[in-house]
Amino acid sequence: MASGGGARGITDGEQPLLKHHKEKHFTAGEVIRDIIIGVSDGLTVPFALAAGLSGANATSSIVLTAGIAEVAAGAISMGLGGYLAAKTEADHYMRELKREQEEIIAVPDTEAAEIAEILSEYGIEPHEYAPVVAALRKKPQAWLDFMMKFELGLEKPNPRRALQSAFTIAVAYIVGGLVPLSPYMFISSVQKAVVASITLTLMALLIFGYGKGYFTGDKPLRSAIQTALIGALASAAAFGMAKAVQ
Question: Hey, which end of the chain has fewer CB within 10 Å, N or C?
Fold first, then answer.
């Protein structure tokens, strides 16, 4: 029998199991994705710019000035991109929510048949899913939530997601961008500064790549090598083109 004071539909025997079992799933996927986008671009683009300018024999002050300008512009651009992407996703969810709500009212039998079809795809027999369909039809909000999640594959977005995404990506870009530029703040010789920048940035790329692999489920070591390799190729290409043009 269900407990009156517990969660709805949870029996007395199930409550202790749920109370003592804590699942350790990683749930900050969107934040990590934004950090990865911001830091990866922040490390790579200013790194390539600094290497290119160094290859053109620019002074450390010029490299630093151009680099800071690029980091500022890049952070604004990347943050705006993150905001628009999240806002578009939220707008799409609301349009589909309204459409699904109208369909539940206009063609309830068809929508109920879709519930049955979805459940049957999980190997549930008609006599097993029939009570579920009937129960959902009595609860319009639960019915709507079910259709959004299982028919359309859409999760309700956080209303603050757009601003959070913009801020996270922009800050991550700035943090990443300052790494390859920091040697130029303290070393006046551009030849020495570029060597320090390359060393520091490659170390940062390796650490960042390892962390990215760890949090995304990829092999950390492989992710670290791939990330560092991409950054190295970008900077080498920029340095080589600057030399060739010069």
Answer: N
Residue 48, classed as helix, strand or coil, is: helix
Q: Which two three-digit tokens encode residue 224?
A: 């670290």
Determine the pLDDT at residue 175.
94
Side chain identity at 93, as an amino acid letter?
Answer: Y
At how many degrees (to 10) do helices 29-55 and 60-106 cross?
150
Per-residue pLDDT band at 11 (split at 50, 70, 90) = low
Q: Which residues contact residue 190 at a Cβ distance below 8 angstroms, ignoring those fewer than 6 apart?
A: 54, 57, 58, 59, 60, 63, 184
Contact 60, 189 (CB under 8 A): yes
Phi, psi of 3 (to 5 degrees): -80, 130
Note the Cα 68 to chain centre separation in Å. Answer: 25
Euclidean distance between CA atoms 87 and 93, whole angstroms: 10
- The Cα–Cα gap between 201 and 186 comes to 15
Token digits of residue 229:
């390799």
- Per the CB < 8 A criterion, the answer to whether 162 and 80 are in contact is no
Angstrom distances, CA of residue 181 to CA of 66, 175, 177, 187 = 10, 11, 7, 10
Q: What element of type H or E holds 110?
A: helix 108-120
DSSP secondary-structure letter at 11?
B
pLDDT digits (tens, 9 = 90+) for 17-33: 556 555 554 445 778 88
CB atoms within 10 A of CB 162: 20
pLDDT tens digit string along 33-89?
898 889 888 888 888 888 888 878 888 899 999 999 999 999 999 999 999 998 998
pTM: 0.73
DSSP SS3 for 2: strand
